[in-house]
């Protein structure tokens, strides 16, 4: 997190890599309330680090904020920065979850990476910070099990 103005409301260049991408956060207007925020990225793309071929996934990010919310434009730019980034499915999914955890310090966060098949096998990756608060409704991710998604 920097002291720079938010990327929201101004022209923002597409980051060349996830390491160069800047994530912005904004204050949570309801820090006294447990609630779930969900982001779904149905067209997430990265590259296979071995072949350079594109990999495609549906990402579902659920979190219970504490003091901070992730700013959605910055999140979109960050996720898009993986388009030319070579990493395995597991690395992409877990790295995104950890970066959001470190930025937001949420009460709870989980990410599901529902990856389309490569070599005939889909690899779905799930990571979370711990148990969700009992006071929230945690809906199903809404992505069906693999049946030729």
Automatic annotation (TrEMBL):
Location within or outside the cell: Cytoplasm
Q: In which pathway does it act?
A: tRNA modification; tRNA-queuosine biosynthesis
Bilayer-crossing regions:
none
Return any one Pfam family short name. Answer: QueF
Biological process (GO), any one: tRNA queuosine(34) biosynthetic process
Task: Spell out the catalytic residues.
Answer: 48, 55
Keyword annotations for this protein? Cytoplasm, NADP, Oxidoreductase, Queuosine biosynthesis
EC code: 1.7.1.13
Binding-site list for substrate = 70-72, 89-90
Q: Does the keyword NADP apply?
A: yes
Oxidoreductase keyword on record:
yes
Q: What reaction does this enzyme carry out catalytically?
A: 7-aminomethyl-7-carbaguanine + 2 NADP(+) = 7-cyano-7-carbaguanine + 2 NADPH + 3 H(+)
Q: What is this protein called?
A: NADPH-dependent 7-cyano-7-deazaguanine reductase
What organism is this sequence from?
Methylobacterium soli
> By which gene is this protein encoded?
queF
């Amino acid at each position: 997190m920097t002291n720079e103005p938010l990327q929201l409301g101004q022209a923002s260049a597409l980051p060349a890599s996830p390491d160069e991408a800047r994530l912005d956060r904004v204050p949570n207007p309801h820090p006294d309330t447990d609630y779930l925020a969900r982001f779904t990225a149905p067209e997430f793309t990265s590259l296979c680090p071995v072949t350079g071929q594109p990999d495609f996934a549906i990402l579902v990010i659920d979190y219970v904020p504490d003091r901070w919310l992730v700013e959605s434009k910055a999140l979109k730019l960050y996720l898009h920065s993986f388009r030319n980034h070579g990493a395995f499915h597991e690395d992409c999914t877990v790295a995104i979850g950890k970066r959001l955890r470190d930025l937001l310090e949420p009460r709870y966060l989980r990410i599901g990476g529902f990856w389309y098949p490569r070599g005939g096998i889909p690899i779905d990756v799930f990571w979370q910070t711990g148990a969700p608060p009992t006071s929230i409704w945690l809906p199903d991710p809404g992505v069906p099990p693999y049946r030729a998604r």
